[in-house]
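Our preliminary data section would be incomplete without showing what the modeling component actually yields. Below, a chain of 248 amino acids is followed by its predicted structure, encoded as tokens that our downstream tools consume directly.
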Amino acid sequence: MLQGYDFSGARLVNTQATFFKYVSGSAGGMDASIVLRVDGVTVGKYTPGDTVSLPDVHKVWSIEPVTANCIGSVVIGFGAVTSTNLQGTVQTVDGGRARSLAGLAFSAYGYAAGSAGNFPFVQLWNKSTDKNLVVNGIVLVSSLASGHNLRYSQAVINASDYMAGAAKKASAAASAAGVIKVNNAASVDAFSLAPNSNRFFMSVQSSVTQQWRPTEPLIVPPGWGVTLSSVNSGADSGVTFEWFEESI
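Predicted structure:
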């Protein structure tokens, strides 16, 4: 029998077992390897996907990440794990669960109401000083059929309007990053958005939700934002951003 365990930093697991697999791990682009000790004896240093099969039963399994903020998932027990799935797929699913459990995954919603002759803007702004936002999902809805540009920016579009991102784990702290909205911009280029930085164009039908899951995530460094703005005056925009955070 195999049992899954998540870790965020060092973890001690007390269970009788002969088999160990490091399923997935993430350390914000740094070293995601771990040192494994069983019953106080160092077995080795391992990276995601590695397995260990021992001849004897051991009772205490110590997981010690090389990088302090490393999070991940392991399985420990008797037998072995075999799968025809790609390792990258396993890491995406289990790594996402581990990030949510660690309080590192967030979402936030902003709604810019329609205003005649004006353009709506909704921005995810990273006001942290030491974390990258890894944006892996955007959901858009508008009451009017309209098109929206997605662009990077280095300016807050409305400093007085800010909603912090909510953690995907109910008891975890809110994000330092959050969503800002403006619904009275007189120009489609009213703000200091990075020139020629259109990253994506989303076209929505009236009151039909559009979801975008980028093939590769967007990275928003400290002091940057990603902004979704309608190219149609008088339109409204309801936008949900999903992201997780990685220490720089």
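The chain has one helix and 18 strands. The longest strand covers residues 11-26. Preliminary results of this kind motivate Aim 1 of the renewal.
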